Amino acid sequence: MKFVDEAHIQVEAGRGGSGCISFRREKYAPRGGPDGGNGGSGGDIYLQADDDLNTLVDYRYTRRYSAGHGEQGRGGNCTGAQGNDLVLRVPTGTAVVDEEAGELLGDLTTVGQRLLVAKGGRNGVGNHCFKSSTNRTPRTATPGQPGQVRQLKLELKVIADVGLLGMPNAGKSTLIRAVSHARPRVADYPFTTLFPSLGVVRVQQHRSFVMADIPGLIAGASQGAGLGIRFLKHLVRCRVLLHLVDIAPMDGSDPVEAARTIIQELETFSHSLAVRERWLVLNKTDLLPEDACVDRCERLVEALDWKGPVYRISAETQQGIAPLSQAIMTWIEERRSMENEDPEMAHTEALQQKTMEEEARLRIQDYNAKRKAARAAQAEEPCTQEQDEASDTQVLYVP
Ligand SMILES: Nc1nc2c(ncn2[C@@H]2O[C@H](COP(=O)(O)OP(=O)(O)OP(=O)(O)O)[C@@H](O)[C@H]2O)c(=O)[nH]1
Ligand SMILES: [Mg+2]
User: Fold this and answer.
1) Residue nearest to atom 6 of ligand 1 (CA)
2) Could you tell me the distance, in angstroms and rounded to a whole number, from the CA of residue 309 to the centre of ligand 1?
3) Which of 191, 192, 194, 253 to mutate to test the pocket of ligand 1 (most atoms within 8 A of CB)?
4) What is the pLDDT of residues 17-27, one digit of tens each?
5) Which homologous superfamily is 162-349+361-380 in?
6) Tens of pLDDT along 340-368?
7) Rounded (10°) CA dihedral 382, 385, 388, 389
């Protein structure tokens, strides 16, 4: 199944039914009076968060949605039927933006949450509503109003407590496979993971958290290189980020450089995301003898001037995995209880979330605009052979 985390749709609520002009005509009821009924109101359109969905792929193919129109009123004071509402199901974690106003309409973060995105048109009223002592035969009725039309942008950001972050091949997918039932592909080539996957880590009965594996980042990810830009946004809802570093890279590259690149990319993408709780997880300890491993880890911590928590694990042999999961669980539980007790802290957290989401949105908008401009320029002047050879090969996620 294709993973799609962005979609643009148009929603059109139903038009209200018009009022009716009619007069009662019946045997033994002379001058029966006006009896034109009201129209029915137009149907609304709602978006509803659904846990059974995990991609917006359906909205890539069908882009226009309309709710039912209200029926016209009829004689005999019959009110027209209301238009049917339309409920569009979206994955939990979908934010809805009104594209024309550039305004965030809402964020569907809990299962079953509903958001009204287009209000149906008001119904017209029939002529019976206009009768009065001075006008007993009103020949006036009002038309129904058109429904609201909106261009919406749907943005899905997965909801997880923990996000995995690291270079390709750092072992992110191996780790999520080791701690949960998630089964992303694992292979020794970069960009094995092409879209985020979630796994539930059960530490004990009734104690669990959700972990998100996202595609690997490379230098320039925040500017769109690799698969970066589109997927960094999936980290903004995580409470803690695990920065996985391969301490024994097969290509002999320096783990310090690799770690610095990721930190740099995170900072460029969003400062508020870069200052979130982040732990350093040094993976593949099984590939080095104990002493060399300790040495290398210490050097890395020193070189990065790292003050936060550090864990040494081997996702492959599962060494060090249990203490890491325990520590994450404890940290999350502590945070949750602190936020429950202290509304001030919960408020600060909500504000931080909002800032991060804003920053991520702006960064992605900026990137999309640049890419569009570059494409337009390319279409105008074909790239020369020298330019072609000079430009680095980039894997770009093509929507
Ligand atoms: N020896 C050893 N190999 C590991 C360990 N963790 C992962 N690997 C190997 O490293 C390679 C890459 O692992 P993945 O889990 O696919 O890495 P990733 O970070 O998900 O990579 P991308 O999806 O490309 O970003 C695979 O061949 C794994 O078997 C480990 O702890 N020890
Ligand atoms: Mg992977």
Assistant:
1) 171
2) 22
3) 192
4) 999 999 999 88
5) P-loop containing nucleotide triphosphate hydrolases (3.40.50.300)
6) 899 998 899 888 888 888 888 888 888 87
7) 180
Highest mean pLDDT among 52-56, 175-179, 366-370: 175-179
Number of H helices, E strands in the chain: 9, 14
Phi then psi for residue 50, to 5 deg, are -135, 130
The answer to whether 39 and 73 have CB atoms below 8 angstroms apart is: yes
pTM of the model: 0.79
Residues in contact with ligand 1 by the CB-under-6-Å rule are 166, 168-174, 186-188, 190-193, 215-216, 283-284, 286-287, 314-316
Q: Confidence band (pLDDT; 50, 70, 90) for 230?
A: confident
How far apart are the two ends of the chain, measured CA to CA in Å? 14
Q: Residue 170: nearest ligand to its CA?
A: 1
The second-level CATH assignment, the architecture, of 6-156 is Distorted Sandwich (2.70)
- Residue range(s) occupied by CATH 3.40.50.300 in the chain: 162-349+361-380
Name residue 150's beta-bridge partners. Answer: 11
Going from the Cα of 395 to the center of ligand 2, the distance in angstroms, rounded, reads: 15
Q: Which of 3, 165, 167, 169 to mutate to test the pocket of ligand 1 (most atoms within 8 A of CB)?
A: 169
